[in-house]
Amino acid sequence: MKILIVEDDERVADALAGFLGRAGYAVERAGDGRGALDMLGSDTEAVILDLGLPDIDGIELCRRIRAVSGVPILIATARSQVHERIRGLRAGADDFLVKPYDVQELLARIEAVTRRSHAIGTEVGPVGIDIDGVRIDLVARRVLVDGEPVELTRKEFDIVAVLARYPGVPVPRERLIREVWNTDWQSFARSLEVHVASIRRKLGRPALIETVRGVGYRLTGL
């Protein structure tokens, strides 16, 4: 597996590249945003992204990567404010880790986002569903509203895909977190809320995903 590290601090990049190399990963390094975009390729399977880059703000770079690729993006930064996490997730990041972090946790999170990336679309279930003018195609991993494609981030689509496999049935928050983030950590509950709000906004169908109080969410309109 090839991982692209986008980090302008050479000492941090050296240490991280060495650790990932010993863990069996092929590593490419970019010290700025333009270099990262040049190195990003079809064989890149994950991106570890610092936000404090010298040429392009990391959030903007995250958006640019997501515009051209579905590669899993893990933001690793010293910015610990909640609003930065929300901005990162809304820009298309799959996970957010605050420095300093334990490298074993980083490794576990890389494994989680890449495993989820490979697994989505392979489970038994409907290949697609139509609700209230919204077409959810689980094979092509796309959503169309009144025939027009809507750009969702990887995590946003994963949430929609889980709900689409159980149309009309409340899906517990815990299950969504487990299937989409591949973890049982309830600290992801806020991230789930942020992603659902973003999906509703992008689809222009706020009532399509109903909040089931005390349980989770379900697709409605059937």
Automatic annotation (TrEMBL):
A GO CC annotation given for this chain: cytosol
Sorted UniProt keywords: DNA-binding, Phosphoprotein, Transcription, Transcription regulation
CDD domains reported for this sequence: trans_reg_C
Domain Response regulatory positions: 2-114
Annotated PROSITE patterns: OMPR_PHOB, RESPONSE_REGULATORY
Annotation: DNA-binding region: 126-221
Name of the protein in its database record: Sensory transduction protein RegX3
Organism of this sequence: Microbacterium azadirachtae
